Write a sequence for this structure.
């Protein structure tokens, strides 16, 4: 008999029979059936006596909460390409957009979307002057996964300032605060910053604290792409900790890494910094399971030491897929000179050591986020492979941590840190975002050379109770929606 039920007649919409439930809390798996009705988890337990409109045999499979990709740049693609195939195919049911200080709202770019806002895609039509308009556009597009969104600090600066190379004036800060407040009222989940990027570099801690104070009463989170992930990583982390502490908001450090050959191994220094900070404030981080980062082509990242793979180049599209080193040799110029000729463009930078990746992934404060850049023919493979890669390579092959811990880093921990009250756990009454996968086969297939590849081993994905991915292909229905702060 069902252990708990919200459907009196015990005829459920769906029953997933015979699987191992990994509930997202990091608790050990247990054998149980899971019933779904009206978009919610209706029962978990022995449901052999219960009936359902649709029954799925999931014996031998893991039944987990739908994965939450806490670090995405899916703001625009959720509207322009709502099938969200790179995400649903990995078992992701919710994406957090608006990271790194760059969000699609509240700003309307004029004719051309400037760097780095074009990391969201080049089309100005998918940027919105108000956050409420953006949320409505997501709902109208009905993407295949749910969308949570942060407000980008760089976006606020670009919307309220004419000269981004200086600090904001008191009047400009007031204008930003007003836009941010309106966005929080319209359901934004918090503020993101990217003081690493030109539009925000001139901002100081006071500017960020003043903005952080706007989201504090809403319980919003502050996520940041810190100023320096290279030699200055320790100072940049202190700036992030102090900013969040000063504004009294929960902090998420984005895609934590120690970049550049000189800094390899320094996660042994940075992770204890997180632990020390966690004793006085709410701190967490996200990370992806790859040794290359990816962003726009930038001369300061061309250090002559690390390998750099060209993902795209506006003036030289034919160089996409080539190593910068080879291109420089062919042109008989330095790597920096070659990079300059290739700009604007994007690249993958092999800047992280595998040992740091493993230490960071395994840290209890670390959640999984893809940081996928959802456009172009040669995106970093993390766009299509992040979550199955953690479960296949790092759990099954390398045994870095138990599967239950990996799922927690993709679901329960993520929902808790981003304040999604109704997601991230398999529990009766919660939204029925559910991912069923084969623990023996799940694996990424996307590579740097061929990044547009479905992963394998993700069998069924349910979003708000609707079957969204079925045996390696998208279903006919899309049921994602915009999730306001706190989730629903
Ligand atoms: Zn970033």
């Amino acid at each position: 008999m069902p252990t708990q039920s919200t459907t009196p007649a015990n005829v459920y919409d769906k029953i997933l029979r015979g699987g191992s439930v990994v509930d997202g809390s990091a608790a050990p798996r247990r054998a149980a059936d899971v019933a779904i009705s009206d978009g919610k988890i209706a029962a978990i337990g022995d449901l052999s006596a219960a009936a359902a409109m649709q029954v799925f045999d999931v014996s031998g499979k893991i039944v987990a909460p739908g994965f939450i990709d806490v670090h995405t740049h899916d703001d625009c693609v959720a509207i322009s390409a709502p099938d969200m195939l790179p995400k649903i195919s990995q078992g992701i049911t919710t994406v957090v957009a608006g990271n790194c200080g760059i969000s699609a709202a509240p700003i309307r770019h004029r004719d051309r979307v400037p760097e780095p806002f074009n990391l969201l895609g080049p089309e100005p039509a998918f940027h919105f002057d108000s956050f409420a308009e953006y949320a409505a556009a997501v709902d109208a597009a009905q993407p295949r996964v749910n969308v949570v969104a942060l407000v980008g600090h760089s976006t606020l600066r670009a919307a309220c300032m004419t000269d981004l190379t200086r600090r904001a004036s008191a009047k400009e800060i007031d204008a930003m605060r007003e836009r941010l407040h309106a966005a929080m009222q319209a359901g934004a989940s918090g503020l993101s910053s990217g003081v690493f990027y030109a539009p925000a570099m001139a901002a100081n801690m006071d500017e960020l604290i003043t903005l952080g104070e706007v989201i504090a009463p809403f319980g919003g989170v502050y996520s940041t792409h810190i100023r320096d992930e290279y030699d200055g990583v320790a100072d940049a982390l202190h700036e992030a900790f102090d900013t969040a502490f000063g504004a009294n908001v929960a902090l998420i450090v984005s895609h934590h890494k120690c970049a550049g050959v000189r800094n390899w191994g320094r996660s042994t220094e940075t992770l204890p910094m997180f632990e020390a900070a966690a004793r006085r404030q709410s701190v967490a981080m996200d990370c992806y399971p790859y040794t290359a980062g990816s962003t726009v082509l930038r001369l300061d990242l061309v250090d002559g030491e690390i390998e750099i793979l060209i993902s795209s180049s506006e003036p030289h599209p034919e160089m996409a897929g080539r190593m910068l080193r080879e291109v420089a040799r062919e042109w008989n110029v330095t790597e920096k000179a070659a990079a300059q000729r290739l700009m604007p463009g994007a690249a993958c930078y092999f800047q992280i050591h595998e040992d740091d990746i493993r230490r960071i992934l395994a840290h209890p404060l670390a959640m999984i986020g893809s940081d996928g850049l959802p456009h172009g023919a040669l995106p970093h493979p993390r766009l299509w492979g992040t979550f199955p890669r953690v479960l296949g390579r790092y759990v099954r092959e390398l045994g870095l941590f138990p599967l239950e811990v990996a799922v927690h880093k993709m679901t329960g921990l993520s929902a808790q840190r981003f304040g999604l009250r109704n997601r991230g756990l398999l529990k009766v009454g919660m939204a029925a975002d559910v991912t069923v996968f084969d623990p023996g086969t799940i694996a990424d297939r996307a590579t740097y050379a061929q990044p547009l590849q479905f992963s394998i081993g993700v069998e069924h994905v349910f979003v708000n109770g609707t079957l969204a991915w079925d045996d390696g292909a998208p279903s006919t229905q899309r049921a994602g929606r915009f999730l306001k702060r706190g989730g629903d």
About this structure: The first strand starts at residue 11 and ends at 17. The mean pLDDT is 96.
